[in-house]
Design brief:
single chain; 142 residues; mainly beta; 2 domains; 6-stranded antiparallel sheet; globular
């Protein structure tokens, strides 16, 4: 059975933010942030994945309809080097890669932020020539 918990975030100096993340907690105590609002600025979890990738394999995020969002932000970590790309689409099927890839060094996390330029957006992480054993990516719509 899941419960919805209210969590307050404090910044340095204990000055309270207007932040109310909603966390779903299952019966085993595992929590997952589902959305957050900070000073009226809404943030929604778009995707997350924690499955390792084989050599030269790619992760494709879901096709995200971003008509009511301004940007996609997130973080990626892999224990082997890879490259993160952003793609935009008018229909969610035909994709245009709009920027040079973001290099992600082995065992080094990298934050990303992309403005939404079309109705749909997705990210693609392409692993290097060595399979990774750790891969984590999370994306949020703002």
């Amino acid at each position: 059975m899941s419960e919805l918990h209210k969590v307050i975030i404090f910044r340095q100096g204990d000055e309270q933010l207007e932040a109310i993340p909603m966390v779903n907690v299952d019966e085993w105590g595992n929590g997952r942030l589902t959305h957050m609002s900070i000073d009226g600025f809404k943030r929604h979890e778009a995707f997350e994945d924690f499955h390792p990738l084989g050599a030269s394999k790619s992760f494709f995020s879901p096709s995200l309809d971003v008509m009511t969002y301004r940007e996609l932000t997130g973080v990626v970590f892999a224990n082997q080097a890879g490259t993160l790309y952003v793609e935009h689409s008018a229909d969610g099927y035909d994709w245009i890669r709009t920027q040079t890839g973001l290099a992600v060094s082995a065992s080094s996390g990298k934050e990303f932020s992309y403005k939404t330029s079309a109705r749909y957006i997705r990210v693609v992480f392409t692993n290097g020539v060595t399979a990774n054993t750790v891969f984590k990516i999370m994306g949020y719509l703002n």
